[in-house]
Amino acid sequence: MRKHQWFAALLSLICTGLGMFYIGTPGMIIGGVLLMALQGAALYIFFITLGFLGLIIGPLVIVLHIVGLIIPIVYFNYRSPKKPMFDEKRRRQLSSPWKIILRTLIGLALFAGSIYGGYTWGSSPFMKTAAEKRVVQEAAESYLEQKYSEPFKVTEVSYTWAVSSYNLRAHSEQAPDLEFTLNSDDGSPPTLSNDTYLNLLWGKQLEEQLKPLLDELYPNQAFAQAYVFSDSETLERNYNSLGQGADGAVRQNVSLIVFADLTAANLPEEQERVLELIRKLPSVTVKGETDLQINYYPSDLNTPDTAKKIGQDFDYMRGLPSTHFFREFDISKMASADDIEIREM
Q1: Residue 121: which pLDDT band, with cuts at 50, 70 and 90?
Q2: What is the Cα–Cα distance from 105 to 18, expressed in whole angstroms?
Q3: In this structure, is the dihedral angle defined by the CA atoms of residues 281, 286, 287 and 289, taken in order, positive or negative?
């Protein structure tokens, strides 16, 4: 009997009320079902209230779990005036291994069902089904193909319930490495907007034009990422054609990762180099406002492996502390090296 007690306690420790199914009396099964149902209901309330009742629901769930653990222990340690009869009843109840296994499996299924039901029903108002996301995905691919006259693939669809909108990631099938984002509302049919395909496409073109300049000023030291905004309503794929005439203002952001060991002694030299970069940037950028940001890192981090990782993900270095930082939202304001403020981090 001691063996059964330990098994029941272990099962109750793993899953609320499962040890009661192991025992298998009608009262125990009813009690186990009740505890599991309460666990599922608590999970449902937790999600439906966005976790705001967590300080109440958390302790309640723990109490339910402890109750489910205590009851089997009490059952096996119960002392009754009719002990021989009670012991015989317990012995018969636990005499069939197959019945024990069947009851336990049923209890496990009910426990899993209560957790799944509580989570699914509680989170359903804030989530979308795979079918609903597929509708948005297909609408987005159709929208992009009609807009740019080339095929696209949507790779990710996520739903934000707070604003009732979808956030999508996609790429052109002709340029799978150029992954961009766009949004969709929750309408039927969905309305797509804010795609960043051209912003990133222009940015890639600008990055290519920046390479000779960076090789001149920062040989084997600098990596660039560019992002370009344009108010133009004309669908223009060529970055160098932007900013011509009065068809929309252009704003371009250039971010650099530079591997250099800056000290108080060589900081003035770096200020001069940044000023030279600023003076030469208009030769590779289109007419418009340019925002320049430079993050400096120790030169010993400039390894082939690091270069490869930056090439795959420019944000890779964000996980490492930079030594110095420069940011100017409009480089046209920089007239001399004294205007270049490189801050130590």
Answers
A1: confident
A2: 9
A3: negative
- Residue keyed to tokens 């940015």: 203
Closest CA to 295 of 265, 268, 340, 255: 255
Q: Which tokens sit at 336?
A: 């001399």
Can you tell me the distance from the alpha carbon of 265 to that of 115, in angstroms, rounded to the nearest whole number?
63
For residue 176, what are the CA distances in angstroms to 16, 29, 154?
48, 56, 11
Whole-angstrom Cα distance, residue 258 to residue 275? 15
Which token pair is 194? 């804010």
pTM: 0.68
288 φ/ψ sector (left φ>0, alpha ψ -120 to 50, else beta) = left
Return the pLDDT at 245. Answer: 59
What is the identity of the amino acid at 323? T
Record the tokens describing residue 232, joined without a space: 């133009």
Give the Cα separation of 121 and 203 in Å (integer). 44
pLDDT-derived band of residue 54, with 50, 70 and 90 as boundaries?
confident
Domains of the chain are 2-126 (no CATH), 130-195 (3.10.450), 198-344 (no CATH)
